[in-house]
Amino acid sequence: MSDIDDRLDRLESLVERQREAIEKRRERRVELEAETEPRRGENGRLRERSAELESRLDRIEAQHGVDGADQQGVADD
After folding, report:
1. Which of 5, 13, 39, 70 could lock 1 by a disulfide, CB 3.0 to 4.6 Å apart?
2. Predicted TM-score (pTM) of this structure
3. What is the DSSP letter of 64?
4. How far is 33 from 38, CA to CA, in rounded Å?
5. What is the DSSP secondary structure assignment for residue 65, as one 8-state letter?
6. Maximum C-alpha span of the chain
7. Torsion sign (Cα): 63, 65, 68, 73
8. Distance CA 72, CA 57 (A)
9. How many CA atoms lie within 13 A of 7 on its CB side?
10. CA torsion sign, 16 to 18 to 22 to 25?
11. Of 77, 71, 73, 39, which Cα lies nearest the Cα of 57?
């Protein structure tokens, strides 16, 4: 085999390994997307719930006359 043929064989082998690695990465990306999607949905629900609770807390604090200075003291504790 000539030097050129040897180099071509090595390059073809390298290309094949890269193709296999790319395919494995694609498969893993699909797996991760499948795992991530439910978490995104839950994250959205948790953000909505957090906003609802913050609003509720604001209303309660307003009813009880809690002002910004009192809130700062609570946050520092």
Report:
1. 5
2. 0.53
3. T
4. 9
5. T
6. 89
7. negative
8. 14
9. 3
10. positive
11. 71
